[in-house]
Specification:
The structure holds two protein chains of two kinds. Chain A is an alpha+beta fold. Chain A has helices at about 40-50, 70-75, 90-100, 110-125, 140-150, 170-185, 195-205, 220-225, 230-235, 330-335, 360-365; strands at about 5-10, 15-25, 30-35, 55-60, 65, 75-80, 155-160, 190-195, 205-210, 215-220, 240-245, 250-255, 255-260, 270-275, 280-285, 295-300, 305-315, 320-325, 340-345, 350-355. Chain A has a six-stranded mixed beta sheet with strand order 6-7-8-3-9-10, sandwiched between helices. In chain A, strands 13-12-11-14-20 form a five-stranded antiparallel beta sheet. A five-stranded antiparallel beta sheet of chain A has the order 15-19-16-17-18. In chain A, α3 packs across α4. By secondary structure, chain B is mainly α. In chain B, about 75% of the residues lie in helices and about 0% in strands. Chain B is built from 13 helices and no strands. Chain B has helices at about 5-15, 20-50, 55-65, 65-100, 105-115, 120-130, 140-145, 150-180, 180-190, 195-220, 225-230, 240-250, 255-290. Chain B starts with 5 loop residues before the first helix and ends in a 15-residue tail after the last helix. The chains are: A alpha+beta, B mainly alpha. The interface of A and B includes residues 102 and 167 of A.
Chain lengths: ~375, ~300
C-alpha cells in the first residue's frame, strides 16, 4: 500500500518536531527514516500510525485521507522499540491478540487463529516458544515475536520504531539481515525508524534523511551515500573530515594552506565547507611538500582490515581533528610516529556553500550571486 | 509499597565494603523491636486479654448481643457499599491520570489526596453542613422525606470520602511506571478502549488493585472520626463497630467494649495476612515479568518527545 504524507507540521510546546514534511512511500518498499535523535523521525512514524495527531497536514493511505480514521481503522502494524509485548500473556496469546479483538462477525474461529499463530511463529522461526512468557525470551526473540504479533492482523503497512535499538550489536546485525529477507518474502510496505546509518543503508530500498524536523534528502542508499545533497547528509553518513576554506584560482585555501582542487563550478572567492572521507585523504611525510593541509600525528590505530590515523590541525586556535583511513601496508610504509608533522592531500573533495557567509571578495568578483544552498560540486 | 529490595539488601549485607559494624546493626534492631513490642504488640495483646478476662461466655454474649450484631452488620454493609464504589472510582481516576493527558491533570491528582489531608472530623462536619437539617440541601431532603445525616447514606458518603485515595494512590504510580506502550500496541492491533483496559491494563495492575482494595476495606471498617459526626450513634441503627466500642467503653462496660474491639483487631490481623500474601504474590509476579535472561541488555525507559 502506498503512503503519502503532505505538509505535516507538529509541535510539542515550543519545540518544532516536524516542519512541513511531505513524503511519498511507494507500495512494497522498505524505507528507512534516518536521522539523529530528536529529528522528528519517530514522531512522523507515530503520526502515520495514528498514535500521534499532526497539528496540520494530511496522511493518505492508498489515496485515502487517513487523518480522520482512528488507529484501529488504519490497519497498520506497529513494532515498538521496547517490544511492548503483553507481559502477562504467553507468546501464543500475544500473537493471537489482534485476531481475538476483532468484532465477533469478523473474528476467525479458534482453529483458524491457532493455525495462523503457528504459521506466523514459524515465519519468525520461534514456534517452539509459543508457551513462554515474554520475560523468558531474549531481546532479539521478543522483537521477532512483536513482529509476528504485528503481522497477525494482516496490516496494510508495517511501521517499525527503532526495532533493533534496544539490542546489542551482534543481535542487531543478525536481525536486520533477517528483516530484509522477511520483507523480500512478504513485500509489505514498511517504514522503519533508525538513527544508525549503517542499518539504514544496509536494509532499506530508500532512505529518508531527516534533521531538525525537516527532510534533508531522499534516495536509494547508493544515491545518498555517493551524492549527499547537504552538508548534514554528508557528515551523518559515515565519518568525515571538514575544512573551512575559500575557493581560489589554484584550488582551495584552507587557513594558510593550499589544497589542490579542480572543481570549477564555484566562483572564485566563495566561502565553502569542504568534506573529505577518511579514506580519501593521503598522508605525505615529505617535509619539502607544500600542498595540502599541515597536521600532526596523534595516534595510529592499526587493528582490523584498515588502519586509522588520528591527527590534529597545526592551528591551535581552530582545534581541528582529522581522521585518515589507510591500508595496513600503507601504514607500515609510512612508519608514522606520534607528533610527526605531515601534510594531508585529499583525492576527492566535496564542497558546499557556507550559507550566510558572504565574503567581500565573492560579492565584488561575481556580479550575480548563485543560490546560497545546495551542492554544486 | 511492594517490597523489591530484599535481594539487593542481602547482597549489600554480604559485601564487606558496604557492611556496617555489628553493634550498629544490633542497636538498631533492639531499638526498633522493643519499640515495636511496647507500642504495637502489647496493646494488641491487651485487647484480647481484656476481652477474655471475664471468660468466653461473656465474650460471646457481648458480640452476639442485639446492638453489637447490628453494629457488625452495619459495618459490613458500609464496607460492602463503599469499597466497590471506590474500586470503580479509583480505577477510573488512576486510568485517567496515568494513561491520558489533559488539562487540569495536576489539579485532579491533588484532589485525590484531599481526603488524606483533611481531618476525618472535618469531613463529617462538611457533610453536616451540606446535608444536615440546617444545611444547604437539608430543607429539600426533608421535603422529599430523604434522610442522609444520622442515617446509613451519610455514613456511606463519609466512608467513601475517607477511603477514596487508597485504590487510586496505589494504582497511579504502578500504571505510570508501566507506561503506555502496551496500551498503544493493543490499540494498533485493533482493540477498542474497553478491550484495551480489560485485557491489557487491568491484568497488569491486578495485584496493586487488590492491595488497594484491602487497605480501603480495612479503613472503611475502622473509620471513626467522620462516621461519628454523621451517624448520630443511634444504637442498633446507625452505630458502626468503632462507634459501638466507644459507647460501651464510656459506659464502663469494658469486657464488652474489648470484645467488639477484638473483632476489629482480628479484622486488622486478617487484613495483614492477606496483604502480606498479596505482596508476596505481586513481588513474585513482578520478578517473573522482570526476570531478564542473561543475554539481554538492560532496557532504558523510552523518553517521549
Amino acid at each position: 500500500m502506498s503512503i503519502e504524507v503532505r505538509n505535516i507540521h507538529k509541535r510539542f510546546g515550543n519545540f518544532t518536531a516536524l516542519n512541513d514534511i511531505s513524503l511519498n512511500f511507494e507500495s512494497g518498499q522498505l524505507v528507512a527514516l534516518l536521522g539523529p535523535s530528536g529529528c522528528g523521525k519517530t514522531t512522523l512514524l507515530r503520526i502515520i500510525a495514528g498514535l500521534e495527531q499532526a497539528d496540520s497536514g494530511i496522511v493518505t493511505l492508498e489515496g485515502e485521507d487517513a487523518s480522520v480514521s482512528s488507529v484501529r481503522e488504519r490497519q497498520v502494524g506497529f513494532v515498538f522499540q521496547h517490544y511492548a509485548l503483553f507481559k502477562h500473556m504467553t507468546v501464543f496469546d500475544n500473537v493471537a491478540f489482534g485476531m481475538r479483538m476483532k468484532p465477533r462477525a469478523q473474528r476467525p474461529s479458534k482453529q483458524q487463529i491457532k493455525d495462523k499463530v503457528h504459521e506466523l511463529l514459524n515465519l519468525v522461526q520461534l514456534d517452539w516458544l509459543a508457551d513462554r512468557y515474554p520475560s523468558q525470551l531474549s531481546g532479539g526473540q521478543r522483537q521477532r515475536i512483536a513482529l509476528a504479533r504485528a503481522l497477525a492482523v494482516e496490516p496494510r503497512v508495517l511501521l517499525l520504531d527503532e526495532p533493533f535499538g534496544a539490542l546489542d550489536a551482534k543481535v542487531r546485525k543478525e536481525l536486520r539481515r533477517w528483516l530484509r529477507k522477511l520483507h523480500d518474502e512478504l513485500h509489505i510496505t514498511s517504514i522503519f525508524v533508525t538513527h544508525d546509518q549503517e542499518e539504514a543503508l544496509e536494509v532499506a530500498d530508500k532512505v529518508v534523511l531527516m534533521d531538525h524536523g525537516h527532510v534533508e534528502q531522499v534516495g536509494t542508499p547508493e544515491e545518498v551515500y555517493n551524492h549527499p545533497a547537504t552538508p548534514f547528509v554528508y557528515s551523518f553518513l559515515g565519518s568525515v573530515n571538514l575544512f573551512h576554506g575559500r575557493v581560489e584560482e589554484e584550488g582551495l585555501r584552507v587557513g594558510a594552506d593550499a589544497v589542490p582542487h579542480t572543481q570549477d563550478n564555484f566562483t572564485e572567492g566563495s566561502e565553502v565547507f569542504a568534506f573529505v572521507r577518511p579514506h580519501e585523504l593521503r598522508i605525505v611525510t615529505d617535509t619539502g611538500y607544500t600542498q595540502g593541509v599541515a597536521a600532526k600525528v596523534v595516534r595510529v590505530l592499526s587493528f582490523g582490515v584498515s588502519a586509522r590515523v588520528e591527527l590534529d590541525g597545526l592551528d591551535r586556535e581552530k582545534d581541528q581533528h582529522f581522521e585518515v583511513e589507510l591500508t595496513q601496508a600503507q601504514v607500515a610504509e609510512l612508519a608514522l610516529i606520534p607528533g610527526q608533522h605531515v601534510r594531508l592531500v585529499p583525492s576527492r573533495l566535496k564542497l558546499f556553500d557556507r550559507p550566510g557567509y558572504v565574503s567581500a571578495d565573492a560579492v565584488s568578483n561575481s556580479g550575480s550571486k548563485q543560490s546560497s544552498t545546495g551542492a554544486r560540486a | 509499597m511492594i517490597s523489591r529490595t530484599s535481594h539487593r539488601s542481602t547482597r549489600f549485607e554480604r559485601n564487606l565494603a558496604t557492611r556496617e559494624a555489628p553493634w550498629v546493626k544490633w542497636t538498631l534492631l533492639t531499638l526498633s523491636l522493643s519499640f515495636f513490642a511496647l507500642f504495637l504488640i502489647l496493646p494488641l495483646v491487651s485487647v484480647f486479654f481484656e476481652a477474655l478476662r471475664k471468660g468466653w461466655e461473656v465474650y460471646l454474649l457481648s458480640i452476639t448481643e442485639e446492638t453489637a450484631l447490628a453494629a457488625i452488620k452495619l459495618t459490613v454493609l458500609i464496607a460492602f457499599i463503599s469499597v466497590p464504589l471506590n474500586l470503580v472510582f479509583g480505577v477510573a481516576a488512576a486510568w485517567l491520570i496515568a494513561k491520558h493527558d489533559f488539562r487540569g491533570k495536576q489539579l485532579l491528582t491533588t484532589f485525590i489526596d484531599l481526603p488524606f489531608s483533611v481531618s476525618p472530623v472535618i469531613v463529617g462536619l462538611m457533610y453536616m453542613l451540606v446535608f444536615g437539617a440546617n444545611g444547604w440541601f437539608g430543607a429539600w431532603l426533608v421535603e422529599h422525606d430523604l434522610k442522609v445525616i444520622f442515617a446509613v447514606p451519610g455514613i456511606v458518603l463519609a466512608t467513601i470520602f475517607v477511603t477514596f485515595p487508597f485504590v487510586a494512590r496505589e494504582l497511579i504510580p504502578l500504571m505510570q511506571a508501566q507506561g503506555r506502550d502496551e496500551e498503544e500496541a493493543a490499540v494498533v492491533l485493533g482493540a477498542n478502549g474497553w478491550q484495551t483496559f480489560w485485557y491489557v491494563t487491568l491484568p497488569n495492575v491486578k495485584w496493586g488493585l487488590l492491595y488497594g482494595v484491602i487497605l480501603s476495606n480495612a479503613r472503611a471498617m475502622g473509620e471513626f472520626g467522620a462516621v461519628s459526626v454523621v451517624s448520630g450513634k443511634i444504637r442498633g441503627q446507625t452505630n458502626t463497630m468503632p462507634l459501638h466500642v466507644e459507647i460501651l467503653y464510656n459506659e464502663y462496660n469494658f469486657a464488652a467494649a474489648f470484645a467488639v474491639a477484638s473483632l476489629l483487631a482480628l479484622l486488622a490481623l486478617v487484613t495483614l495476612v492477606i496483604k502480606t500474601w498479596v505482596e508476596h504474590r505481586a513481588s513474585s509476579h513482578f520478578n517473573a515479568t522482570h526476570m531478564v535472561p542473561a543475554d539481554v541488555n538492560t532496557l532504558s525507559p523510552r523518553v517521549m518527545p
